[in-house]
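Predict the assembly for these two chains.
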Amino acid sequence: MSSVSFRKLEKSYGSLRIVKGIDLEIADREFVVLVGPSGCGKSTTLRMLAGLESISDGEIRIGERVVNKLPPRERDIAMVFQDYALYPHKTVYENMAFSLKVRGISSAEIKPRIAQAAEMLGITPLLDRKPSQLSGGQRQRVAMGRAIVRRPQVFLFDEPLSNLDAKLRGQVRTEIKRLHQAIGTTIIYVTHDQVEAMTLADRIVILKGGEIEQVGTPDEVYNSPASVFVGGFIGSPAMNFAKGTIRGGQVTFDGGAGIPLHDHSAGKVGGLEGRDVVVGIRPEHFVPAGEGHALSGQVQVVEPLGSDTLIHFALGQSTLTARVAPEMRPSPGEALSIGVDPSRVHLFDAATERAIAR
Amino acid sequence: MATASETTLVTTRNESGTKWWTRFLDPSEGTLAALLLLPTALLLTLIIVYPVCRLIWTSFQNLSLTSGLPASFAGLENYSLMLDDPVFWETTWNTVLITLITVPGALLVGLALALMANLPFNVKWPVRLSLLIPWALPLSFAGLIFAWFFHSEYGVVNDVLRRIGFEGVIWFNSANWAFAAICLTIIWKTSSFMALIILAGLQTIPRSLYEAADVDGAGRLRQFFEITLPLLKPAIVVALIFRTITALQTFDIPFTMTRGGPGTSTATLAMYIHQNTVDFLDLGYGSALAVVMFVLSMGVTAVYLRMIRARG
């Protein structure tokens, strides 16, 4: 087990910069998720750490060792690939034993290691099967088993759940979390799915355009997004955004409605009278009218989800979404009065899109 | 579930379906399958089954166009003649030897070429084109070119040998050297075909397997033997089937390079069949020889197919 650090990590293909100077310290035994949309550089960063991509500039350390020039086999890492990359002509046992054999470990030692890993993952009955005889979920577990038997310093997961259906994804996600709790090895996990990031990570690293947008615990990135991008990326349904202006201790929307600034926010934006802002409100932070500050809008679409109801409504020029109690079922076209807690309202600078206050 | 009116309709159709033309318009699944297969079956009968049957029938006949006699049934006479014919045994042995040397030779060279062509070149087309050219050349053309390459006085091979301090070889005066020259030419000509099939196989191996092996700690050589080679087996078996069958039918290259000489030392079974049927017009004996070659080819194919089936 080991820490990992990236210092001013760069990756370019010709004049195209994919990763732009990433600085990140990952502690020993930490579960860090790199998350972001396609093309943000998260997989490239992981592959540079694995040694599968060269580094254009900067430094990667695993523990105290700089590994920039080391081939993958000398980095003491194990990786679970998006397509699992199981050797199709080898049995599950042979797949799991391969890396150990290559490292000259005796059969007497390999057998108990594989038995232990297979037991942990519930794949003991599958050891004699070929990958083509396994389901998607079983393949995924075998890929994890192949990584576990290595007992590496760092586990790398490259979008390991993206080939599974939604139900199986949830199950395997729980297994990965349980696995981390059991073995405690440092895990770096890449995904584009914010739910995976929120549920698995000790810390989330949100990447955009090859740069780190925010690093924080799931609570921090959810409750205090550093930018419009983070606010919109983390949380489902996505955070609502509306343009507004700060005037006289409140933020006024384009349509004329306003929300008084929370005491804490008011302190931060005191010198910004007249500034244009982007207001961010999470759908789940709307409350029934009468609780919090009331806003009036017009209902456009209602989506009953069983556990709760999503109401899409117009507020001035903007369309917002509110997640409310399941029994609240207004009709489209109806006037809507809904409350919002000023303390849960996020303010972002309209020009830089960086957070001002919450 | 069918309604009453639907049931009535079906019954009515079945009753009126006794006429032949309604059965043709609304055939059963079996009849439809037979009708759809009929054109292909007829074509195959015409171009494969009939010629093969005719060949086998002719091999049991005395049919020499030079004798002036009508064809007569000879039973197994042509086959028993073959057993006492030293040229048959020599040409058969030459054919088997060419197959045993050139098929593995072309496989090894083809594998090496395919591995090279699969390297991440920035511009791929010159590599692919250089693989295609030997394959696209007519066999007799390759034979003529290489006959010049191996020419004792003007050939490039002897020129190179002399430049590096060896004596030139009179290639086509010695049975062994002539045989070697023919085998080298066949390997050059056919390895590009092997390379193309193996290259197609190589490109189906996902890159992530090599990345996983990198992370697992396997070096390049181990990756080749543990990943590349096992996953190439299906492509290699297909290439071997095609190449072995065509090797057993070797004709053009030895015909254009040596005409089977010196003596009959480089003549193949196909050349001997050609000599008997075209030069001597002995269609009965020539057909018997062709049947032997047909059986040899079918035997090899059966062995390979059994290998594929055994591997699952």
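Confidence is low (pLDDT under 50) at residues 1-17 of chain B. The radius of gyration of chain B is 27 Å.
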